Structure formats: structure tokens, C-alpha cells
Amino acid sequence: MHIAPWNHQWRKQQLSDLLSQQWDLVVVGGGITGAGILLAAAQQGWRCLLVEQQDIAWGTSSRSSKMVHGGLRYLAQGHWRLTRDSAQQRQYLLQAMHGLIEPLPFAYPHYKGEFPGPCIMSATLKVYDTLAGQRQHRQYSHTAADYLAPALKQQQLTAINCFQDAITDDVRLVLRVLQAARALGAEVLTQVQVQAPIYQQQRIVGLQVVDQLSGQAYSLTSQVVAQAAGVWTDLPQSDNYQLRPLRGSHLLLPYWRLPVSQAISFRHPQDQRSVFVFPWAGATIIGTTDLDHQQDLQQEARIEAAECLYLLAAANHLFPEARLTINDVRSTWSGVRPIVTKQRQDQAPSAASREHHIWQEPGRVSVAGGKLTTYRLLAAEVVQHCALQLTRHLKSKSIDQSWQLAIPDWNFPAAIGWQQRQRLLGYYGQGVGDLLALFQQLGTEQLAGLPLYQAELVFACRYEQVLQLDDLLLRRTRIGLLLAEGGRALLPLIKTLCQAELEWSDQQWQQQVKRYLEIWQRYYSLPEELLV
């Protein structure tokens, strides 16, 4: 089983043709919401195209907390439906995308005099389990800390409540959804920016777009447009809703500096907000902040000095023996959540609802808000709205997709163990056959001790629409997050593996390296004022 090449050469050959066709649906936005809409529409047999002005998952969908979770905090805020939907979707995705979405155990330590106490938390978790349809929580005495979280602060610890959510690589999830959509005939173009809608008799009938690589303008025609552009969504002016961009930032540390075998959830001592310390991709993550994003939305979001100190203070409060400092931070990332609100902007960011909202106008359906975990439900709802504008009956109101591979017994090289096989199946889906062919050519050598094979870099260049070096190092792989200085030391090896695949001259390679290192330093490293 193989997938078609999806690379720079494919784009050059297909771009003009794809942008000159008549489409049933054009989706604007290449994050998880747009990808989900594209797949749901392709399952209906519609002719559909997705355009993204940057890269796949360039915005919020590559900068999340990586959690596929039911939203325990939302339950505490009274958002029962959101919590129920999230918990049930988490369970579905755990079963459907094993290897890509994995269980993540959580521990919530309770200290004397702090709220919530162990009994209240245990009762809340019972409701949480009921909504998910599966019992997963358990309460332990303080003595269990020695094996649940050995480095945890012991003074005045009274109990620990444990429960389960899930974790993923958010970009790989988007790529898997897009892969499934393309297998059904949908198309995806990145680096295509929407300039303006095209109106005909007060109805949107297409889009004016520009290829950002060549500067060439096109008129794209479609019966309906689905706008899923996150914080860049253009809301109808007549509507009373507004988008409130909220930034969430994270610190990534080498695992040895703060080794945790599960996520630790607790309240920050400064403002009582929920924060997490959790393992991911062989590293340890501290997150997240939640504050109004005042930076330019046309630039990548970046962490601010106060956020770095806030997150380090949280970790040092719970793990005092770790004595973490700025020097322990390997990388950072910040994502901007598209929160839809009618309420006052002085409402605390963490209290703002994560519910989504859908707007309709002739020829266009727009959506904002929502969560990574519930993307399938959101996509199905948007497609139902689009079907009304297309005057078509849906094949099924319950949009579903079988993610199980048709051939379970792949012939993996003996050097690849069971855990890595599961990861590769989860990450690459039907593309595993092509990846195995690359293993035969390149061997099974891993990169710098990462859970990443050299063949995966070549696969990304050939089959996953890599157009810039940061596409490869920050999103198709996480080299830029997981290695010191964004993986600078590996660039000569990456050049050897990927330059020919990307059809870049030596001059283009140097330009890409310069561009990538500038992006990493500005948006994925520490703020300049903390580096002095």
C-alpha cells in the first residue's frame, strides 16, 4: 500500500490546474479544524480543496499542549456538554489512532489547606469518568508519592488523585487527517494566501488568492467556502461575537532535568491557575500560560520573559529539589487560541469558554473556537451547514472514518522495536509502506538519540509537502524543539539527506538555514532579555 508523492515538484505541476478548477468546497485554514472539515467533506464525495497561507498546522495546531483530553477544568466551570464531548472523543481517538494518540496518566497532588481537597477532586473525577463512559481514576495516600512522582514536594502532602487523559503530536494528527482526505480525492495547497472573497449577486462564489512562493494571483471558484482560519478568521461584521486571541506558552526541558513518568497537574501558587508538568517525546514540558495575546497576529507568537519565569516558578514550587533555572530551558513555543466571546474582555482568560461558534452567510460558513480533541464533531457540524448551502443530502450525519490499517502485519526491519513500530504506524498510516521502502535504502539509523529515523526526514520531503526548512524541522519533525539550538549541529547531516529531495541549490540551502535559525531564535528560544 502506497501514497502519492506530495512534494515541491508535485506543487509546481499541479498548482495552476488546482487553482483554476471549479470546486464544491474550498476550505481556508490548514489546522486541525480545516483538516477535519476537508476529510468530512471528502467522505461525502464532494470535490474539495484546502488552502493554507503558511504551512500545515503552522498556527495553533502545532503549538498546543499536545493533549487529547476531556477537559477536567471545563467540568469544574460547568461546561458539561463540552466535557462530555471531549471525553468521549478522547476515548474514540485512543482506539482509532493507537501509536499517534497514547494514554497519558495524570497525578493531582493535594496539600493541606489547598483547594480542591482530595474528596472534592475524587467526586469530580467520578463525574469525569461517567461522562467518558469509563472508570479510570483512583485516589492514593501521600505515601504513594515515592513511586508516583518521586521528586514531588512532600511537605504537607495529604493525598494524590490519579486519572487518565491522552497525548499526541498535534502536527502528526493534522497530517494523518489530511492524508485520509487526500486518499479520497481531496487536495491541499500550502503557501496560498486568500486576499479577498469574490462576490456575485451578494453571494461569495470564490476567492482571490496569491501563491506566496511566486507572487502569482489566481481567482478560485467554489460553490461554498468553509473558513477555519483560527484567530485569522474574518467574522461577519453584523455579528455581535468577537475573537479574543489568548496565548498559551510552554517550556521544554531535557528529560533528565525534571524526570516525570506521568503528567502532574496542580495549581500555580501565584494565581491558582491549573498548570502541568508532563513527559513528551523524550523531554519534559511545563505549561501553560493563558493571557490575552497583544502581539501582531501576522507574526508567529512568542513567549515573553514574564511567562518563562511564571512557568519555572510553578515547577520549582512543586519540585523544589530540581532548582530549575532559565539555563535548563531547551526551547519554547506559544500558541494563540481563537476564543469566541460576547462577554467583557476583562473576564479572566482561563474563564473564557472554549465552545465553538459557526457563522453563515451566502456562499460561506465560518467557524472559530473549539478544541483539538473535538475536531471531528466540529467538522461534521460545519459540513452539515455547508450541505445546506449546496442543497445536498449528507450520506450520514455521523461523519466517521476507519483509521485501522488494512494490512496489520508490516514487514518492519528487525532493528525497529515494537514501541517504535506502533509509533510509525500511528504517525504515517497508509504511508508506512513507502517509509519501509526508505528504510531499505537508508537503513534504520536514528538522529542524535531522538525517537526519529533518518528515513523519516526523507519521507517528509517526498510525501508531506515540505516547502521551507522550518516546515521540516519544526512541524514534520520536532528536531527544532527537542535539540539544543534548534538542532543546528545536525544541519550538515540533514543537508546530505534532504537537499536533493527538496531540489535546493547550495545557495538556496544556505538561505533556508539562515531563515530557519532566525525563526527559531526569535520564536522558539528564550526572550532576548533572559539570554544576557
Automatic annotation (TrEMBL):
Q: Does the keyword Protein biosynthesis apply?
A: no
Q: Specify the Alpha-glycerophosphate oxidase C-terminal domain's residue ranges.
A: 420-508
Q: Which UniProt keywords apply?
A: FAD, Flavoprotein, Glycerol metabolism, Oxidoreductase
* Pfam families listed in its UniProt record: DAO, DAO_C
InterPro entries to which the protein is assigned, alphabetical: DAO_C, DAO_C_sf, FAD-dep_OxRdtase, FAD/NAD-bd_sf, G3P_DH_FAD-dep
Give TM segment ranges.
none
Q: From the UniProt record, which GO molecular function terms apply?
A: glycerol-3-phosphate dehydrogenase (quinone) activity
* Location of the FAD dependent oxidoreductase domain: 24-350
The coenzyme or cofactor needed here is: FAD
What GO biological process terms are annotated to this protein in UniProt?
Answer: glycerol metabolic process; glycerol-3-phosphate catabolic process
Name the family the entry cites: Belongs to the FAD-dependent glycerol-3-phosphate dehydrogenase family.
Please identify the protein, giving its name as recorded: FAD-dependent oxidoreductase
